[in-house]
Design brief:
This protein is α+β, with helices and mostly antiparallel strands and 477 residues long. The chain has helices at 44-56, 72-84, 90-108, 118-131, 137-140, 146-165, 192-205, 208-217, 221-225, 270-280, 301-315, 322-335, 340-347, 352-358, 360-378, 445-472, and strands at residues 11-14, 20-28, 34-41, 238-241, 244-248, 251-255, 264-267, 413-418, 421-426, 438-442. The strands form four sheets. It has a three-stranded antiparallel beta sheet, covered by helices on one side. A three-stranded antiparallel beta sheet has the order 8-9-10.
């Protein structure tokens, strides 16, 4: 575990350009906000030495009294921009900025730090639960989820903790707040029969290799979409996981895994490797699963999610998330005897304890099985009929792939997001030569089809009007 720096020592971090940066508070401005100064060095030890010299050359503030008059909004902005943002990944920055600038500052930003009370924060959380949603409230409800409220609390609590360490506050008023319960999302696992039906249907729908690899490795959605053929050793079956793909401000971005444990290698089973060897001859891209639109770009993780939902529905399987395929792989691996440490390494968990917490239900069953085997070996007990037996290979499925009906060109597409939400999407080519998509949402498939048809008619009218306008404009020589 990393050693925490003591209060007042400043912070040291590695920059993207390879240099080390040290930053410390050297005083306070007229508003009472901390003023920082930084030092740069090629090595961490040199950076620490420079930071110590900087602090020694400056008279540290001697007052132990909190600085009055500082607004929470000013402090949150300073704390985020100076302390947090430089060390956050782009997608994490977006989460922080939504919490700070869209929720906390509009509600509490005008309150002075030293006047902020636990009751103020508690009432703020209550309002978020009752009517804090800013977008698509008609679809998801007026209030924010428990998980979102807890995330907002985490950010606010951290900012106030820093204010305490900088002696702007005597205590953190967020300490005494009562939070919504932390509810883990329900984990769903496909049965062996469902896995067979899923893969049979995936062959018909053109995503067999992607789903087979996912069920054989448990990669995260962004990781499997970012795989390149250079990551796979076709001779040994070693697959390196070195990057992930995700969307930031509407653009696909490829970046390294979030943690060191995310950089890992997985050995593929021989049958899976054989399938991928044959599949490579049909791809024609450096990306293992390229975008259907642009072979030079990786597949959008959202596209993989939507494709899975279509395949699940056609295969008659229960509705699960893409992440549940990761759970399916992990559960089957444990049930077939893989140890926790090995599984933790394969799926990229930072600690084996994380794997134990997530899959406690499986390990409980493994312990019961082990107890039964010990009883059989020592006590000569009769073998049980159901429990304590090794998983058997399921009988071959008789499922026949659903051929489906292709939607006609120009009618868009409809996708089920969850049990109560459908999405309609239309992406025509506009007069500027680019595709511009629009979405509609509804609580039933029938309503979504109706709204989609209305939107398509409106978009076609807009496109026709733009074309007419372009024809009417005088040509410039």
């Amino acid at each position: 575990m990393a050693k925490r720096r003591k209060r007042g020592e400043g912070g040291v971090s590695l920059r993207k350009d390879g240099r080390w940066e040290g930053r410390a508070v050297i005083g306070y401005d007229d508003k009472g906000l901390p003023v920082t100064k930084n030092v740069l060095a090629k090595t961490k030890s040199e950076c620490k030495a420079k930071l110590t010299a900087l602090k020694d050359s400056i008279q540290a503030p001697t007052s132990d009294q909190p600085k009055p008059g500082i607004l929470l909004g000013d402090w949150l902005d300073f704390w985020y921009q100076s302390y947090k943002k430089p060390n956050l990944r782009p997608n994490t920055q977006m989460s922080y900025e939504r919490r700070i600038y869209q929720h906390i500052i509009p509600a509490l930003g005008g309150t002075q730090l030293d006047k902020l009370t636990t009751n103020d924060i508690q009432q703020f959380y209550t309002r978020l639960k009752q009517g804090g949603r800013l977008l698509r409230a008609e679809l998801y409800g007026e209030g924010l989820s428990d998980q979102t409220v807890r995330g907002i609390h985490t950010t606010l609590h951290a900012a106030l903790d820093k204010a305490v360490s900088e002696k702007l506050l005597f205590r953190n008023p967020a300490d005494g707040c009562r939070l919504p319960p932390a509810k883990a999302r329900e984990m769903q696992v496909l049965t062996p029969e469902e896995i067979q039906r899923l893969l049979i249907q995936a062959k018909e729908d053109g995503c067999f290799e992607l789903l087979l690899l996912e069920l054989s490795t448990g990669l995260r959605r962004g990781e499997i979409c970012a795989l390149q053929w250079d990551d796979l050793n076709l001779r040994t079956g070693e697959l390196r996981v070195e990057r992930q793909v995700h969307r930031i401000n509407g653009e696909l971005v490829v970046s390294p895994p979030k943690t060191k444990a995310g950089n890992r290698s997985v050995i593929l089973p021989a049958p899976v490797l054989s399938v991928l060897k044959a599949y490579k001859e049909t791809v024609g891209s450096k990306w293992m699963f390229p975008s259907p639109i642009n072979k030079n770009s990786p597949r959008d993780p959202a596209t993989a999610r939507k494709r899975l939902q279509t395949v699940l529905q056609r295969a008659g399987c229960k509705k699960v998330r893409f992440h549940d395929l990761r759970h399916t792989f992990s559960t089957l691996s444990l049930e077939h005897g893989m140890d926790i440490k090995t599984l933790s390494t394969i799926i990229g968990h930072v600690s084996s304890s994380t794997t134990l917490n997530v899959y406690a239900h499986v390990t409980d069953e493994m312990r019961r099985t082990a107890a039964v085997k010990i009883d059989q070996g020592i006590g000569k007990a009769d073998p049980p009929i159901e429990r304590g037996v090794a998983p058997r290979k399921p009988a071959p499925s008789t499922f026949q792939a659903h051929k489906g009906q292709r939607r006609k060109a120009g009618t868009g597409c409809v996708t089920q997001i969850n049990e109560k939400l459908w999405e309609g999407r239309y992406s025509p080519v506009w007069p500027d030569g680019k595709k511009h998509a629009r979405n509609v949402y509804a609580h039933s498939e029938e309503e979504c089809e109706k709204l989609l048809a209305e939107m398509i008619a409106e978009m076609k009218a807009e496109i026709a009007a733009e074309k007419e306008q372009l024809k009417a404009e005088p040509k410039v020589d």
